[in-house]
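Can you give me the bound-state structure? Components:
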Amino acid sequence: MDKLIKNTGINKLIALIVTFVIVQVLISTNIINDYIFSTLVTICINIILAASLNLITGFTGQFSLGHAGFMSIGAYTCAIITLRYSTVWGFVGGLVAGAVFAAMVGFLVGLPTLRLKGDYLAIATLGMAEIIKILFRNVLDDLTNGAAGLRGIPQFINWAWLFLFTAGSVLLISNFINSSHGRACISIREDEIASEAMGVNSTKYKVTAFVTGAFFAGIAGAIYASYFYYLKPDYFAFKKSIDILVIVVLGGMGSISGSVIAAILLALISTYLQAFPELNMVINGALFVIIMIFRPQGIMGSKELSLSLIKKWTGQFGRKNGGAA
Amino acid sequence: MPILTVNKLTKSFGGLMAVSNVSMELKKGELVGLIGPNGAGKTTVFNLLTGIYQPTSGTVTLHRDKKEEQLQGLKPYTICKKGIARTFQNIRLFKDLTVLDNVRIAMNKNVKYGLFSTFFHTRSYSDEEKEMLDKCMQLLKILKLDHKKDELAKNLPYGEQRHLEILRALATNPCILLLDEPAAGMNPAETAQLTEMIGWIRENFDLTILLIEHDMSLVMKICERIYVLDYGMVIAEGTPSEIKSNKRVIEAYLGEEMGNA
Ligand SMILES: Nc1ncnc2c1ncn2[C@@H]1O[C@H](COP(=O)(O)OP(=O)(O)OP(=O)(O)O)[C@@H](O)[C@H]1O
Ligand SMILES: [Mg+2]
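Here's the bound-state model for the whole set.
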């Protein structure tokens, strides 16, 4: 077991390959049908959105309510490009362009607003997302077809692309967090004054986290556009940003695995309760209230799921049941 | 040879002159005390020296590598990079992070690997991270905190939290160390141990130290020179024995335990 824990890099790779192959087999044998696959796409998009917002809000401590804005930039950019160049390369190029474009807007917006703290930053980012929405709806309507939205976006997302972009995004974000730069971001959340006094350029790191988060939100948006082949500005409203924030808070601020778990959990609940929309909303609401009362730090707190943590849990479980650990 | 010159430093908060016309000089390798009654402006001087507050007027000059640099108006992280590190009166550790991460964060400013290495964990990432880890462990060993590297800072006993804060400041590789009441809340045995440790790190890290402290036995024992602040002004400067017999100092401390130190 200890040996297993040491080879975490290889373990992760094996786990990823196994997951990919299993799902691929299930799709080929049609056990995962189109309906289940669309849920899978939603889960993956939400994982990328939550992990990237977690970097900004959970790890760096900058309260952002504008994540849907960055997502919409990625979505529209990718959609407009793939509508012109309807090839796989057009799709990949559109996705990369969407992510880069979202990151650039993140930089322009982040530089002046990240000086603001707490509630003020939240309001400023909220305003930004609204402006982006209005731009897509009313100003750039030659490109975006305004409120009616874009239809017939070529669909290139299959399981291979979906898996590649989701696993890749989560891996890159985790790598960032597990680095000196990531630790600098976390120190800003913990105590900005102490962090600056220890040589951390807090503005630089806040902007870095914001831009990185925007980049990955752009990727999520591009996947959305390429799978659901229909885009309208209203989808990226305030509620969408809140939905993403809820996943982050539920999973745990400062835990990427928490974001992944919460994204899956919420999608499963709403899939099972699809037939009863009212009940779905009530149960979702009750779930949030219960979790915030009994586990305000979220499912994972700021811990990451790892073999050693699972070992600890099962060890505790064994002891509770009278088994010798 | 001076390493830091403070010239007519002034800070007012609205109408309150927290620091007024303070001039001082630190010579390389000195251990200097900064004392004064509560509210005299000592912590404000530290906040001005480290860029947390901007001075209303006055200058701070660092003499390093035969260069003179003006520090007033610079950001805290820039001043830290130039070699001034500090601790805080009310401990400001990264409470929910591990002991190791507290120290590692202080080494961030020396990290050379860029964003690409960060995202893809390249060789330069793992080499530098390993080097950083080794350095941290060496530092933690000095204060016997190495076996607690994975504990959260907030779970350390109070005395060790103070030690960790000093270690974190040392990890920035400073030439000047500012300590704000390091012995506050410690018992006599802990204070004695701290006194010894401050002397030791000064020798071994080639440091110049400026120390705020209310514990007069500590100050009188280890400081070579002392500045006394009262109502934001320097009212006396001299060796411990000169300070002890200074009339203005005794007046400022009237009713406090100056005499029996
Ligand atoms: N940010 C601030 N805004 C307004 N007034 C301040 C501020 N910081 C300090 N002061 C005031 O400046 C004066 C000096 O405070 P300072 O904290 O420097 O004193 P000190 O010598 O460190 O005292 P102590 O021994 O109690 O720590 C006090 O009157 C304090 O109330
Ligand atoms: Mg003070």
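A couple of observations. The longest helix of chain A spans residues 202-228. The pocket of adenosine-5'-triphosphate (ligand 1) is lined by residues B 13, 16, 18, 36, 38-44, 89 (CB under 6 Å).
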